[in-house]
Amino acid sequence: MTFRLDQLPKKKYVLPGNAACAGCGMMIGLRVLGMALGEEVVLIVPASCSSVVQGLAPKSSIAMPVLNVPFASAAAVATGISEAFKALGVRGHAVVWAGDGSTVDIGFAAVSGAAERNSDVIYVMYDNEAYMNTGIQRSGSTPKYAWTSTTPVGKREQKKDVALMLAVQGAPYVATANIAYPQDFYRKLKRAAEIPGFKFIHLYAPCPPGWRFDPAKTVEVARLAVETGVWILWEYDRGAFRLNPPSTIYRDRAKRRPLADYIKIQGRFAHLSDEEVRFIEEEVEAKWQRIAKFLE
Amino acid sequence: MKTLATRKIALTGNYAVAHAVKMAKPHVIAAYPITPQTSIVEKLSEFVERGELKSSFVNVESEFSAMSVVYGAAMAGARAFTATSSHGLLYMYEVVWWTALSRAPVVMAVVTRTIGPPWNIHVEHNDILTLRDTGWLVAMAGDVQEAFDLTLQAFKIAEFAVLPMAVGLDGFILSHSTEPIELTPQEVVDEFLPPRRFDVPVAFRPGVPVTFGNLPSDNRIHARHKAALYNAHQDAKELIRRVDEEYGKLTGRSYGGLVEWYKCEDAKYVVVCTGAWCSDGKAAVDRLRARGMPVGLARLRFLRPFPAEWLRRLDLYDVVIVYDRDITPAGGVLGLEVKSVLSRAKVINIIAGIAGVDFDVSGFYETVQNAIGGKYGEVEFVI
Amino acid sequence: MLPLASPALASAGVTGTWRIYKPVVELEKCVDCGVCWQFCPDSVIEWERGRKIQIDYTYCKGCGICAEVCPVKVIKMVPENNT
Question: Domain-by-domain residue ranges, chain A?
């Protein structure tokens, strides 16, 4: 698939003057979604930063149809919309645009149910690794050691790997993506739109106020996550599991940048000792080893 | 009246509801099992598998998702149905409210059941009464035939009022009791029930960028939207009457208004109740009248819209005895609501039959006499 | 019947007032690649190849992502009170 910036739609699917924080990573992803599928989708948005960034009615900052829904309901509401469209002969995709809290915590039963019954839904979970909308509380997707307002000395538990769980469940299409790699995310959205059944994209989306870094660094933080190996770009496409560039080269640990490059620019990790950073580095390697088993 | 042949068939309350739903041809049905509702969705899944009903039948992982699926389907323009009981209704409660304030015309059967703990599958009305503040229209069937007829009417009422509607039927007493009923012929149903308008309350389609549910720029937008539910319920009263009248012309069966009056014309004392046990109440009224006591009965067919105009008539009687098959720490729900519109009549609230405790004709017969005889306080428990 | 919302500018107001630093582009050195347009979270950069970029300062929040991602470093973040 060709991806020339100058051939992408110029229509603004995310409008200026919205309520997102300066430097919001999620909004970069939402713009890519608009460019890829803007005219073919209805968005289902559970309680999240995405409900707030729309701004104040009767205005909305999103130039796509948006149905705001209760926190835990998005995957099921999307199922209903998708079934209704099929019954009524409407072309288009029910797309969930949900944060990590609604996906891996409160709404996980609905996500898992939609995956199991293979509902025809594209589910995008933008992962800013905490409950940002309510003020940076720990979620099941917060990484170990990260400071949040409810883990003042750092989270003690592992991040839930929801994408891997859903791939193991056998959903037709599961992928990870990262807002620093819009081309990869765009292609994955287009691919998801071609496949019937349940599609899940786990989008890494840094949050400057929540992660305590300069809003100018959103894309850099996201890119460092891939280059240090913390975030792995992969896709599971109807039974075939593969790495996607540039993560392919980072399977080789020696090619990865030192983890400290990623850790040191985020205030949420400021309390970590060098020893703890080395410990996380081992955990990152362990994650790669897990992924490697799927690649075999 | 049509001369089309009607079929008389013996059905349980649950199967009667399932047949009515089948004839209404919903696009989407979402189902999660809970006793005593389950046989409704089991029967519907059979209809779908046999090709007799072309619905999308979605098996979900919780009642919360069942309501979410039918909510989404209704917002996308589909006719949608689900059914639940007791804890299932409580589990879906957040989306129940969201559905009403989205004006999504979902239809749901609520097969009433006790709320625990302890676990108890028998009848009680507390579950369906949790809908009273939500914006849903709420009806209670008196018998299996009415459960069938109300379910068909519910689709039309919901879609024209642009409000979700619940049809209640007493767990086991109606849901699992077989009665001979008349099934409305499909041609008649098709004439009665027009296709769902996909663009009411909103045409939610790809390429049409409307947003619903983001924060209001002025809280008065939200406040007016909520207040509109009150007006919609007031308007629904006339709609319900018209729909029932039209249904009566087509089928020969109509039920009148929101309240059914039984032998109230010359009564001095009136029993007020809702649901299946009203039949026991009527039998008790007959027995009391045989002994010369001027007793009547008001059966609440609809709990929402709140039948205030009907209930105010109760002030004409000396003693109003309200039977609640539900309990709140402030008394019975119907007792509280009836009292709220009366100023003259003496109201005695009898809370009976909760947690599935048997309460039959003799129960009414004795307690009515006790109430009239001044043996009861304002709120009386009969357990 | 439902209080709906429609796509509009300024759904959260004139967000240019949030800005502390302002992105200033040296257009003569701009290579017209579109990368800043791609990554601007707020859609405040207009871009058509051949016409170079234009920033909508009414709504630009001044996050500085454009300056960071510019491959030729021709966008400078300048304190607002100095411009």
Answer: 20-295
pLDDT at A242: 97
**Phi and psi dihedrals of B136, rounded to 5?**
-75, 150
Judgement on whether residues B226 and B343 belong to the same structural domain of the protein: no
* C-alpha distance from B373 to closest chain C C-alpha (Å): 51
Establish how many alpha carbons lie within 13 A of residue C43's alpha carbon, considering only the half-sphere containing its beta carbon: 26
Which residues 6-65 in chain A show a CB within 8 A of chain C? 6, 8, 10, 12-20, 22-25, 27-28, 31, 53-63
Per the CB < 8 A criterion, the answer to whether A218 and C63 are in contact is yes
Cα→Cα distances B138→A207, B158, B235, B240, Å: 45, 10, 15, 11
Give the pLDDT score at A74. Answer: 98
Residue B268: which of B361, B374, B372 has the closest Cα? B372
CATH code of the domain made up of C15-82: 3.30.70.20
DSSP string, B350-365: EEESGGG----HHHHH
Quote the minimal CA–CA distance from A193 to chain B in Å.
14
Same domain for B91 and B209, yes or no, is yes
Task: Extract the residue ranges of chain A whose pLDDT is less than 70.
Answer: 1-2
Give yes or no for a cis peptide into B201 (omega within 30° of 0): yes
Query: What's the whole-number average pLDDT of chain B?
Result: 97
- The count of domains in chain B is 2
> Would B1 be classed as within a structural domain?
no
Q: How many Å lie between the alpha carbon of A104 and the closest alpha carbon of chain B?
A: 16
Crossing angle of helices B361-372 and B278-290, in 10° steps, is 60
What are the DSSP calls for B94-147, one per residue? Answer: HHHHHHHHTT---EEEEEE----SSP--S--SHHHHTTTTTT-EEEE-SSHHHH
Full residue range of the structural domain in which residue B48 is found: 7-251
Output the pLDDT for position A3: 74
Q: Cβ contact (<8 Å) for A80 and B64?
A: no
Among the partner-chain residues A69, A86, A113, the one whose CB lies closest to the CB of B60 is A113
Task: Give the pLDDT score at B5.
Answer: 60
Q: Name every residue in C having a CB less than 8 A away from some CB of A.
A: 3-15, 18, 33-35, 37-44, 47-49, 56, 58-65, 67-69, 77
Residue B85 distance to chain A (closest CA, Å): 20
Q: Closest partner residue to A28 among C14, C39, C60, by Cβ? A: C39
Q: Which CATH number does A20-295 carry? A: 3.40.50.970
Chains that touch B (3 or more CB pairs under 8 A): A, C
Residues B48 and B165 in one domain: yes
pLDDT higher than 60, residue B289: yes
Cβ neighbours of A208 in C, within 8 Å: 63
Could you read off the pLDDT of A121-166 as tens digits, one per residue? 999 999 999 999 999 999 999 999 999 999 999 999 999 999 999 9
Letter for the amino acid at A8? L
pLDDT in tens, B187-237: 999 999 999 999 999 989 999 999 999 999 999 999 999 999 999 999 999
- Residue B247 sits in the same domain as residue B302: no
Give, for all 83 residues of chain C, the pLDDT tens digit.
999 999 999 999 999 999 999 999 999 999 999 999 999 999 999 999 999 999 999 999 999 999 999 999 999 999 997 54
pLDDT of residue B6: 65
Chain C residues with CB within 8 Å of chain B CB: 1-7
- C18 with A22: Cβ contact below 8 A: yes
Confidence (pLDDT) at B1: 46
CB atoms C12 and A55 under 8 Å: yes
From A51, which residue of chain B is nearest by alpha-carbon distance? B214
Q: What is the pLDDT of residue B4?
A: 56
Query: Domain check: are B231 and B266 in the same one?
Result: no
Average confidence (pLDDT) over B361-379? 97
- Could you tell me which of B167, B300, B175, B191 has the C-alpha nearest to residue B251? B191
ipTM associated with this complex: 0.97
